[in-house]
Amino acid sequence: MTQTTAPVKQAWARRRVPGGPYLLLLPAAVAMAGVSLYPLFYGVRASVTHYLYGREFGYNGLTNYHIVWHDQFFWEAMRTTAKYVICAVTIETVLGLGLALLVSREIRFGGPIRVGLILPMTIAPVVVGVMWRLLYDSGIGVTDTIWGWFGAPPPNLLAHNTSAFVAVVVVDVWEWTPLIFLILLAGLQSLPQEPLEAARVDGAGRVRVFFDHTLPMMVPVLLVAITLRTIDAIGTFDQIYVLTQGGPGTSTRLISIYAYNTAFLDSQYGYAAAMLLSLLAMVMILMVVAVRMLRRSAS
Amino acid sequence: MSDNQSRERVTRSYTRREVIQGAVGTGAALGLSPLLAACGGGSSSSSGGKAGGSITIGSFSDPAMVPFRDVFLKKFTAETGIQTKWHETNYNAWYQNSKTDGLQKTGAYDIYVMDDNWVPEYAAGGAIQSLSKLGLKVNPNILEKGLEQGYWPPKSGPRLKAFANATPELYALVIIDDVEILYYNKDYFPSAPKTWDDIAAVAKAKSQPPNLYGWTARGVAGNPIMQTYLPLLNSYGGNFANDDWSPGFAGPEGVAALERLFSFIPYMPAGVAAFDTSQETAVMLQGHCTAMTEYTGTAHVVDDPTQSKVVGKIDFAATPSQVKSGPAIGTFICGIASAAPNTEGAVKFLEWFTSDKVQHEFASGGSVAVTGPALRDPALAAKYRWLPACADAVDNSIPKPRTPDEPKMEDLLGTELNQALVEAISAKSGYTQIAQKHLTAAANQITAYLKQQGTY
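The joint structure predicted for all components is written out below.
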């Protein structure tokens, strides 16, 4: 009996259901389509629709995109966003790498220090905004007190274009340096030690080892960290909305704030969708460039 | 495709690089998808639902609404047997929720408590019902300027082309006549200042920053600084929008009004460009300021010793004049949702709340009622000295342009005003050029925007 059924079982096991793997992927694909593709499709549809008084007033082709292209505030917001992303991500990368190098070695209280360093990242951005708003507030904020110790007048950080911009970058750096730190720390700890030890045996100092060996080996991880952080920083909204609402003037008005105001205060849903789709296209181009750089560095 | 190739494609493992690349690309698309979807405002419709023994009222949170919520809803239930349900959230969230509810006709609410500048959009978009068509009986004692805020198209002023010949109908009914009034400290003003020159003279003579400022204001870009600028603009004879929708603030009147604000810079807190209501009123309530213009919400707390160090010292008047007094009006106003489950109950509530008897009771707690007899009752005026000032201010008030695009117009002008203030604070001179430059820029932006909308 056993001898006759075993080949049958094996045959069943080997038998292939046509399109089986795809069938198994179907639930996940449907879920993905529901939560990702449908909103995307809906956004595309909204971007070619004319809205008036908050209601749809029919298809209007590429008019919204045409307006986006000629909207000085859109480009101004894009420039501010680019400036914000470059400043924040650069500082975060340098700080994150420095901290990761510091903590990757066996040091006293390494565990608690690591936990402490990642704490800001775990706080909701809105709470971060409120917290820093209180710190910066010209009436009750601690910045006034600190300035006062040096005999300086209150800085009114959020009331001037440059200082307000610096202030929001500082908040971003405080909150998101831990993310870069975590990614880079994981990267550092997974580096092969042999080349580093060999370099040290050959008499290379710490700086030489870092620039000639550690940094080149870390490039792929660095690129991943920078890319992820850049995507995230482009969409920054909560803390800036709480802190400055995009002001003074338009000095901290990122594209996310401008799009939000356009959609939800001005009820220009179609125009806001066109704006964000244009942004999506630009982010995708950025991604392609980043991935190519990643490939090149890895090869 | 061969069997081997097919199997390899199904079973092969992915490299770390491929996973990372995929995650990065998917992350970018996923990150922006919800934002895009959120931009797709809809207009699908559903039926209104059944009438019942209760009404649901939604509102933004505001201290002025506390008596309405805590006292008068219960009274209404006691007198009529109709139950009330109350939902409130912050201003921006409620603006979105109520608009979506009205446009999608979900029937979640019967009554929306709104800011009066929402009325054009809600009425034109069909988010609220015409109270005229529902047969709501209007109390003739309601102050006319307050009542007018609920009409669409507006009874006076410029109109959208599409509504040029339409008969105005009442779409929303005022429940609190919120209006800008002058708050002044009697320690520094022997009598109510009449003009901006009076305010400036005291500011110059008495200011000792940071202990005492001659003036404080809201300076944040957009709506906040507009509340500072509008009484100035109106008093100098300018207009936010002329009758043909052209901007009426970039001429000499508007420039002079902004220059007047700049002239207060030495006597205002240095961080005023980042001030909103809370910072502005804190300066006043701490006794660090001689005068300010603000809506009536703060009037309730000036005599509250737990919040104010100037108990009994603050008095109230109409906003100062230059060629006239022109306070901005921003009433709390109620509309009945397009798919209200209990329209009849909602109408009954609005008629009840705006009746003379209830309005008198409302004013008896210091709230800014909407009827003349309640606001001008001598006994109530003796107890709540801001009430007659509010009635005068409503009578002299100048409404904002009645259009769904008013928030955008405010945003454009308010952003330039904030930028002008920041520049003026830094420059400390050249005020005329700064004012002219930014007001002209705002006028050009608004003109271009309205042209692009194509409805003017």
